[in-house]
Amino acid sequence: MRNAIKEYLNLTDKEKDAIWKKAIFVFDTNVLLNLYRYTAATRNALLDSIKNVNNRIWIPYQVAYEFMKDRPTVIFDTVHRYNELIKEGDRFIEELQNNLRLPSDDQCLKDLHDNINKWINERKEKDLSVTNPSEDPLLNEILTFFDNRVGKKPSEEEKEERIKEGKKRYEKKIPPGYKDCEKSKRGDDSEYGDYFAWKEILEYSKENKVDIIYITNDQKEDWWSIVKGKTLGPRVELIQEFYNKTEKAILFYTTENFINYAKEKGASIPKAVIDEIKTTIPTPPKNSLYPERPDVSDIRNLIFFYDKKIEDYNKFIRQEQLLIRQLQYAYERTHDPNILQRINHSIDKTNKWMNRLNQLCEERNKSALDLKNYLYNQD
Fold it and tell me: What's the number of CA atoms in the CB half-sphere (13 Å) around residue 179?
């Protein structure tokens, strides 16, 4: 019975160890791009783990193509993330000042602000390896790793044939790749990227008669069997197709599992590295707040968040305007310069709050429009 249903059965640790010792390690695009997102310690740990199997690595041409195409965007997004942290620090200090009614020249607040900016800039200098795609030492390292270890670029005829195959598979929801159908709106055949890579892996394994260990951070159901929100393992159809076409074995690992396995085999990898890999999620495209398949509840929760912040700021502004009127009345009676100074301070504070309120309203309206467009496209 085991042979009849072997694609459904988990391999033993002994079987996995045997495959690990001889298989070719194939890396998905997202694994390579995440090297730009990780901190220095995590990036170096993953690079070291790849070096340890450097004589047995390979990537499909499709992965190399996607990596080079998306690399500049990931670099700029990562730089943007640090810049946004500076802005978040500014907003945090502003909220402290507003909520605690502190004067703008409060020295403790200034010191805190300086320390926050200093910490962010130190992290940026330490962990941000690349800020400009044209000056990229990490790229040179990756190119060296995979020198002569990349699949052949398909001809136009081969590509057209694979697109036809992909269309037929997607109509029948045969994995992988059918969950990327919405990418067809781009008009660049990117919806077939996963299938192109899978096709190359199958052909490489068959031609070279090798087992494959595939490392990917893709979490979609066209790669993994997901039951009631829990990932049980790779799709059975993928294991079955791979064996039927290559007569070899394939193992699927996330980067986290790949690093964990390397650690079990003696690699020195700190827990903080594994924790970061576990929580690293690719940044959504810049033209949208959400991934390509947004969860409606996430958008609604974001709108609710904006509504709550807008309500809070309106409350702050009303309270401060009331205080200004009271101070103005007191000043008319006393002409006390200290009261006038407090009035000017409150006016400046109110103007800052109103500017922030306008920003929140714009962000809230954009989220509402995104929700409307998403629901419209679902009809």
Answer: 14
CA Rg value for the chain: 27
Tens-digit pLDDT profile for residues 251-281: 999 999 999 888 887 778 888 998 898 877 5
Question: Cβ distance 191 to 181 under 8 Å?
Answer: yes
Instruction: Output the CA angle 229-275-75, nearest 5 degrees.
Output: 95
Q: Residue 283 above 70 pLDDT?
A: no
- Give the DSSP letter of residue 234: E
Polymer length in residues for the chain: 379
Helix, coil or strand: residue 226? strand
Burial (CB count <10 Å: 0-12, 13-18, 19+), residue 297: exposed
Asked whether 204 and 151 are in contact (CB, 8 A), the reply is yes
Query: Residue 87: CB partners within 8 Å, gap ≥ 6?
Result: none
Domain ranges of the chain: 6-279, 296-378
- The alpha carbon of residue 102 and the mean position of all alpha carbons in its chain are separated, in whole angstroms, by 37
3-state secondary structure of 214: strand
Kind of pairing between the strands at 250-253 and 212-215: parallel
User: Of 199, 198, 204, nearest to 56 (Cα)?
Assistant: 204
**Identity of the amino acid at 225:** S
* CA–CA gap between residue 302 and residue 310 (Å, rounded): 12
Q: 213: helix, coil or strand? A: strand
CA distance 219 to 193: 15
pLDDT digits (tens, 9 = 90+) for 326-351: 888 888 888 888 888 888 888 888 88
pTM for the model stands at: 0.71
Q: 93 or 100, which is more confident? A: 93
C-alpha closest to that of 215 among 152, 260, 163, 275: 260
- d(CA 5, CA 48) in angstroms, rounded, equals 37
